[in-house]
Structures are given as structure tokens and as C-alpha cells.
Amino acid sequence: MTDTSLMAAEIAEIAPAVQHCLTRNEGAMAALGEMLRRDAPGHVITVARGSSDHAAHYVGQAISQRLGLAVASVGPSISSVYGARIAAEGALVLAVSQSGQSRDIRHLTEMLGDTGGLTVALTNRADSPLAHGVDHMIDIAAGPEQAVAATKSYVCSVVAGLMLVAHWAQDGALQAALQRLPDALDGALRLDWSAMAAHLEGAERMTLLSRGAGLSVAQEMALKLMETCGIAAQAFSAAEVLHGPSALLRDGARVMLYATEKTGAASIVDTGARLTAQGADVLAMPPQLPALHPLLDPIAHLPAFYKVVEQEARRRGINPDRPAFLQKETDTL
Amino acid sequence: MTDTSLMAAEIAEIAPAVQHCLTRNEGAMAALGEMLRRDAPGHVITVARGSSDHAAHYVGQAISQRLGLAVASVGPSISSVYGARIAAEGALVLAVSQSGQSRDIRHLTEMLGDTGGLTVALTNRADSPLAHGVDHMIDIAAGPEQAVAATKSYVCSVVAGLMLVAHWAQDGALQAALQRLPDALDGALRLDWSAMAAHLEGAERMTLLSRGAGLSVAQEMALKLMETCGIAAQAFSAAEVLHGPSALLRDGARVMLYATEKTGAASIVDTGARLTAQGADVLAMPPQLPALHPLLDPIAHLPAFYKVVEQEARRRGINPDRPAFLQKETDTL
């Protein structure tokens, strides 16, 4: 199989794009972190859709774990459809939009600034309307992305958010681990995930289970399986799945565990064992990289997954760059 | 088909249970509403899992629309698995647990109280550990519920939360409409939803689309279809689905629109038309009740859905009271 898709080319660009994002934003993040320690927000509001929303959830999980703040994901429809005005006094407002073009994301973010929030945008377009309307713009510096499936822009959005967390929390271990992330992302591309490729073969449905930051990645994985391979994929917390959805996971139903870090792994593996006992076909975590940092390991493995997905799409006769009925930028109300 | 299941009996008890919840809690809600206006919270944190979490999202949507506050849904794993301490100074903490027994829900709620939050529990067990550990306990008064699928306890949790919103916001229209809700819930049981029954017949998958408070109900509907009928159901925002999942909704894929209130309906119907054009089999909203209130219409129609689900489970040879592999109370970490 030849590697000719834009998606494959962009997956190969993840590690250098992350290196660029780290280098370019070091100074801005140090300044922003200092400001956030001085005028400490009491809570955080994120504004995003699609893959960007999954990136926002990842960063939100890191903020809750390292800064001890509650993070509200506010859907743009609250203002665009329901006309509500949301108070953001004392809040950090984090908008994530790779294109920076969506009107509803921009309007909600500006409204939250008007009601007292400090607005920060993570975007891949420094000249976009969103970038111009916020207090602080962070250019995730992923470079041009042409495939419909967001890959390097998703990873760079997460990395930019984690840089912010590392500087804000003055977390030296996380800062140091971020510097080693590009090498890990490269290493992930060389992992043997043929077991996952076999698990996807012919699948109409797939259930992904994880926890914490890994759950955000599992949700992003499910979205990629839907949009790129036409597989009906759902991601659940390994705890939440026992509140109902596990009824479906029997009779050979395909399940994949995404357990990259020790703390959450025990309960994910335990849920996997319960589902195996009731007849599900459970793929444990494919081969892993050496541990880097609990907040980075979920994202570090993603290139291995993207590679399998790109190949699975082509195996199904789907052009991974242009899945049917999807657009790169989606403007909704 | 005879109506002998506990689930069917409990569905018939929804309207009287809601009447009981309204009568019993009127005084407590008036007092709590006054207190919340006096010591106005700056944001809200919800703590819940499963059906209770869907109820919490519904109430959260109402809080955002009517009180203009951001609502963070904090997963119990943040403390039970990741050991973080979340600051809740100035926040209203709303815990929802029908059983009040889950240790992780209780521990997180108490921790949020310790860090400065005002804690309120909505529970069906006034003598539960959760009820004893909060500043204010609201007994949703749904009465005993024995079927694994939560029906009347879900509706009563939402109603208790909406009573709180109505009193807190001094929203006379919402207060008056709540008094008419039991009649509407009774009326929903007499709606002809045979079109939905036909749409479910033989379905392995189902996609539900809605917005706002209706999206919380669509998520609860998807959970019921999974746990009671073994149908792989997913609910999406009618805007969010265009960010990827819509790629799957073609070639006869079954979709149901849940559009109960005018404001959100236009965009839901528009998304439905796009999906029909790409080949999906889209069921528009089945026959509706006369409009009651935009924040009540999504919940008012739910008994019609529950009835169809209970009958579909039996048509598939599943005991709706005891789906395989599920327990009424789930204790997770």
C-alpha cells in the first residue's frame, strides 16, 4: 500500500509541528502562566466543537488535575440559539478552533469576554476573526492542514493547552516531559499496531473505553473512525459504560481499551475483563511507548492510531482525505 | 401484549410521582431559591453518573438559559482516581443520585463542599449517605423504583432541578407551567407513537438528534435504547453531528429527531433534511403535545418514548425489568 494521502503526509508532520509549537510559544506561555498565577481564575469555561472540543476536554482534564479548577464546556448554542448571556467574571475562557472561522465559537467567546472572562484562543490561524477578538491568542503553529480529518492540528491544540497548564502550575516535570514529546510521537509511528488493524477489519461498530485525559483521546478516536472509516464508534468512560451501555457489549461486540497511564489503567482493565466475561471481543492496549508523563502518554500514542485509521479507510475504498458528506470547516448556529 | 412489567407500571406512575414531587418540595425550593438570590453563586458544578448525569445536564441547561451561569459537569474520577482537589468557592454544587449510595458521587460532593461550594443533593433516598453529607437535601419523592431502567426517578430528578431554577430565577411562567406538567405527562402516554415503534423495529443502530435541554433527553433516550433494547444508540447535537458523525448517516441509517420546542427545532429539522438528502432514514418528531414551556416540553414527551421502548424490549424477547449484565445500582471508582 502506498502512502500517498494528504492525511498520511500530515500524520508524518505531527512530531515536527509539535516541536515548532513548543519552540514558538515558550515565551508567550511563560508570560500567560505568570498572569494566571497573579489573577487566579476561580473556574474555567471552554468553547469548541468537534475535534477542537475533544482537545478542549483534554486540556480541561489537565487543568482540573493540576490546577484544581472546575471546567465547564459551554456549547455555542446557549447564545446562538437560546440567546442566553453567561456570566464569566473570574473565569478563564479557553476557545479552541483550528480554523478560527466559526461564527458561533467567536460570538460566544467574545460574549464571555464582555461578561468578565479572560479570553484565550488556541487556533491554527493567527489572522482569523477568533484570534482578533480575544485577550490572548496562541498560534498552535500546526501549519497548513488539508485532509478533512484533523490530525496534527488536534495534537498541536492539546500540546498548546498543556504548555499553558505546565507554565501556569509551574510544573517542572510536565514542562520537561513536553520537550521529549516530539521524540515520543515519532516513536509512536513505529509501534506495531497490527493487532488494532486486525480488530478494525470488517467492523461496523467499535466501542472505546478509557478514563481521564485518555477518554478525550478515545472520543477523538471514535470521531475519526466515524468520519474516516464509516465505523459506528462510541467512546465511554470505563466507569460510565457500566451504567447501561455495557448491555450491548456481548456476543463478539468489538471493544478497544485505551489505557496509557498507570493511574487509570487498573479500572479500565477491570472493566475490560467484565466485558470479556460477558462475551465481548476486547482488544487490550496495543504495544505501548515507554511512559513519558501521565498527562502526555494519551496523546503520544495517537499517531499510531491515526496511521491504522488512514490505512483502514483505504482498505475500505474510502479516500481518507475527502470522506463523503463532510467539509473541513463547518459553520453552524 | 399485556402490560405486566415493573417498567410499564413505573412509567404509569410518572405523572403522580411528579405531582408528589411538586407538592412536597414547594416550600423548600422557595427557601433555597431565596438563599441563592442572596448569596448568588458565580458558577455551578454538577456531580452525577448515568441517567442521573443526563438529568443533571438538563438542569444545567436550564440554569445556563435562565440564570446565565456556566455549568461544569465534574466526573467523580477526578478525585477518586486522579486524587485532585477541586476548588468550589462561590459555586453551587448540584449532586444528582437516585440511590444516594455511590461512594464516588458522595466523596466528590463532600470534597466540593469542603473547598467552599454550597452543596445540594437531588436524591430519591432521603436517608442515604449522600443526603446526610450535603448542605441541602431535596427528596425527589419518586417512590420505590424496581426496574433496572430509571424512568420516574429520572423525570422527578429533572423536575426537582427545574423547580429550583424556577424559584431561584423567580420565573413565574416556568413555575406555572410546572404545575401543568403532570397533566402533560399523562397526555404523552396517550400520544400515538406507533411511527417510532415502526422505526425501532429490527434496528441495530439508532442516531438521535436534538439541541439544548432536548439533547439531554435524547442522551437519556439513547441510554434506554442501549440498556433496555440492545440497540446501539447515540445522541448528538444537531450541530455537532455535522463535525464528523454525519458521515455514517446514509444508506438507510436510522435517525430520529427530537425537536420539541420552536427555538431549537429549526436547526434540528434542517440537519434532518441534510441527512435525508444523503440517504438516511430520518423520523421527524412523532405527534406532539400542545406546547407547555420550552424548558418542559422535552421532558413532557418522555413517557411516550418510554412506553415504546418497554414494548420494543418485549418484542425482542428481553425482560425490560432485568436487562442482562446490568444492575440497578452501580458502584464504581
UniProtKB/TrEMBL annotation, chains A, B:
Q: Which UniProt keywords apply?
A: Aminotransferase, Repeat, Transferase
Q: Does the keyword Cell membrane apply?
A: no
Q: Recall the GO molecular function terms of this protein's record.
A: carbohydrate derivative binding; glutamine-fructose-6-phosphate transaminase (isomerizing) activity
What does the record give as EC number?
2.6.1.16
Q: Name one Pfam family in it.
A: SIS
Matching entries from InterPro entries are given as: GlmS/AgaS_SIS, GlmS/FrlB_SIS, SIS_dom, SIS_dom_sf
Q: Where is the SIS domain?
A: 32-183
Q: Does the keyword Translocase apply?
A: no
One biological process term from GO is: carbohydrate derivative metabolic process
What is the protein name for this chain? Glucosamine--fructose-6-phosphate aminotransferase (Isomerizing)
